[in-house]
Amino acid sequence: MTKLAAAIKGGGVRAGHVSAAVLAEHFVLVANATGLAAALRWLITGLRASTGVVGLLAVLEGLLDAVETGEPHAVILSSAAAVAAAMS
User: Fold this and answer.
1) How far apart are CA 30 and CA 61, in angstroms?
2) Average pLDDT in the chain
3) pTM: predicted TM-score of the whole model, two decimal places
4) CA 49, CA 73: separation in Å to the nearest integer?
5) Nearest 5°: phi and psi at 21?
6) What string of DSSP letters covers the chain?
7) C-alpha 43: how far from chain center
8) Alpha-carbon distance 50 to 74, whole Å?
9) Which end of the chain, N or C, is surrounded by fewer C-beta atoms within 10 Å?
10) Torsion sign (Cα): 12, 4, 33, 60
11) 87 with 8: CB under 8 angstroms?
12) What is the pLDDT of residues 32-59, one digit of tens each?
């Protein structure tokens, strides 16, 4: 979660008028409170109104699918790391 949050913050991803730093902070808060799947759903929903994030949305939706279908923890971690690397 922290790598994804850092990538959101460092990548300058915005959701409407919400800054990347605030978006990253809220992502971590939602993930800690309700889990990774809920946080990814929250992030995807927030980013849908943004422009220029179609590829990111597709990757995040793939990561969400992996979490929801019970992929092994190692797969989830490597996928999250790949998302973070792609955003930096």
Assistant:
1) 17
2) 81
3) 0.79
4) 30
5) -65, -45
6) -HHHHHHHHHHT--BTTB-HHHHHHHHHHHHHHH-HHHHHHHHHHHHTTSSS-HHHHHHHHHHHHHHHTT--HHHHHHHHHHHHHHH-
7) 6
8) 30
9) C
10) positive
11) yes
12) 999 999 999 998 998 887 777 788 888 8
What gap in Å lies between CA 54 and CA 47, rounded to an integer?
A: 9
Own/partner long-range contacts of 47-56 (Cβ < 8 Å, ≥24 apart): 47/13, 47/15, 49/15, 49/16, 50/13, 50/14, 50/15, 50/16, 53/13, 56/13, 56/83, 56/87
Report residue 71 as tokens. 């992929």
Distance CA 4, CA 17 (A): 20
From the list 57, 5, 60, the residue with the least C-alpha distance to 31 is 5
